[in-house]
Amino acid sequence: MALRPHPLLYLQAITALSFAMPPGTTYANCPHVLTGKPSYQAETSLSVPSRSAENVFRRAVNEQAGLDFDEAKLFFDCLKDATKRDDKTALSRLVQYPLRIHALDRASTIATPVAFRKQYPLIFNQRVKDAIEAQRFEDVFVSYRGIMIGNGEVWISGITERGRSKPTIKIISINN
Known about the structure:
6-stranded mixed sheet; alpha+beta; Nuclear Transport Factor 2, Chain: A
């Protein structure tokens, strides 16, 4: 029987990870994410108070969310960069379709990248953009459902596509 770390350890480690990304940081090279190339390499590094806290956070991303830590970090950097540039084409490629949208106590879905780009101003409103911009990867909430940005404005998860054994990281829900 394998021993599993207590969930409280993950929360303690995430709480311990309180550090900021340097201002003006250039985020990851997004073409690797957008084209689905397997060789992910994040360009921003974590600055953690201890190696042990970083390891616990890495395990939480891997074990609870089921995501490769480095791929999740690169995806996050790409999401921040595309949001900052208002690049609706790049953002449309980061989404799993149909995309679930929850706005004003109403749920809807966006079926295609074309529909996403057309409705982009309504989907990525200022509240969603602010949540993404303010979020540090080191402070994301991680659970079996994936990675939560802000107060649930954006949810990211791994999607296992037919014929692939490794999940592809995508935005699965936006709550604006």
